[in-house]
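not sure who needs this but someone in the group chat was asking about Amidohydrolase from Mesobacillus zeae so here u go. i didnt clean anything up, its just raw.
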Amino acid sequence: MQPEELLKKIQGLAPTLVEYRRDFHTHPEPAWKEFRTTSIIVEKLIELGYSVKMGSEVITKSEMMGVPSDAELRHHMKQAISQGANPELVEKMAGGLTGAVAELHCGEGPVIALRFDIDSNDIEEVKDESHRPYREGFSSKNSKAMHACGHDGHAAMGLGVAEILAGMKEELKGTIRIIFQPGEEGVRGARAMVASGVVDGVDYIIGGHIGFKAAHTGDFICGTGKFLATTKLDATFKGVPAHAGAAPQEGKNALLAAAAASLNLHAISRHGEGASRINVGVMEAGQGRNILPPNAIIKLETRGENSEIDEYMVRESMRVIEASAKMYDVEYDIKTVGGTKSGESSMPMVQLLKKLAESMPQFTNVIEYCDFGAAEDYSHFMSVVQENGGIGTYYMLGSNRTAGHHDDHFDFDESVLPTGVELNVRAVLDIIANHE
C-alpha cells in the first residue's frame, strides 16, 4: 500500500475511532471488570479475521493481583451484559479473566507485539456542562468508574491499528500480536498476562500513552526510561476486642499495630544505589470509641528505581509489619495486590520511532527520550521481552487535555487518535521492512 493510500484509509477511519473512544468512555470498567470492553473488542477482532485468545488463554489466575470479590465480579458481568456485551464471551471471563490477545499470522518474519490498556479508573466523573463528555452525552454511565487516564483512547487506537493491518495482510510478514491489557491501573494485569505466555517469542514490542509528559497536541516522546518498579501491599491486623474501660487488659489492639507499622514503614532507610519510595495511603481500623480495636488494615506501596531496590523496600516493609504485629501481639496477613518491574526503552526502537515521528507533519515537537518517573504496567511486558532477547519502547502521544490524568474533569483531544494509529502502523511496516 502506498503511503498516500495508507494515510487516506487512516483519515477515513477517524470518525470510527471517535465512536469507539466515546463508547468505551460511556461504559468504563475498572481492573478485572472489563467484561463489556473486552467483549466489544473481541467481536470486532474476530470480524476483522484475527485469531483471538481470551479468558484463561491470556490470564494466569494464580498470578492475578487485587481481584474484586466474586459477588462484585458477578454484578459487573450482569451490568456488562445489560449494556450490550455478548453473554457467552462474558461467561468465558468469569472470575475477572478479562482482556484479549489478537494475532495476525502473515508467514515467516518477526513477532511484533503492540500493547493497549483498556481499564478505567475508580473515579466518579463530574456532571457539569463545562465538561465535554457530559455536555455531549458520552460521560460515564457507571457509578464510581471513569476513563480519566485515556485508556478509552488507547483501546480505540488498538482497534484502529487492527483494522488497518488486517486490510494489509498480504503485504505483511511475520506475526502481529495485539495485546488488549486489563488492570493497568494499580499495575495488576501485566504479570498475569506474561505468565500465560502472551509475550513469548516477541521480537519487538511497542506501547504508549496519550498525554502524560507529552502535554500538548503535536508533542511526541519516542522513548521512556526509569520506570519505577513498584509493589502494592495490603496488610491486615487481627487482634482481640475488649471494653476500653472495664477490661482493657483483655484486648489486643490492632489499631496500634497498624499505626506503629505505618510510622516505621516511612522510617525505612532509603537505598544508596537509586531512588526508593514508600507510602501508606490508607489506614482503617476499629469499631467504636469504647472498644479496643480488634481489626485494622493498611494499604501501601513501595517503589524503586529498579526492581532490586523495590524488592529491598518490600523485604523491609514485611519485616516492619511483622515486628509491629508482634509488638502488640496481634495476628497479621500481607497480600500483594499489584506490582510491576522497572523498565528502560531500547534505543534502536527509540530511534525508529523518532525517524517516523519526524516524518509526520502532525508532530511539531519530537522529543527523543524522557524519564518516566512513575510506574506503568507496560514495563513488565517490555522487560520480559528484553530479557528474552527482544527490544521495545514506550512512547507518549501529545494531546491537549482539560485536566490532569486521574482527574474527574479529564478529557483529551480526539484528533490525536488517527495520528496514534498511523504511528503504530508505520512502526510495524518499518520493522518488517528492516528485520533481518
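also Residues 3-26 form the longest helix (24 residues). if thats useful
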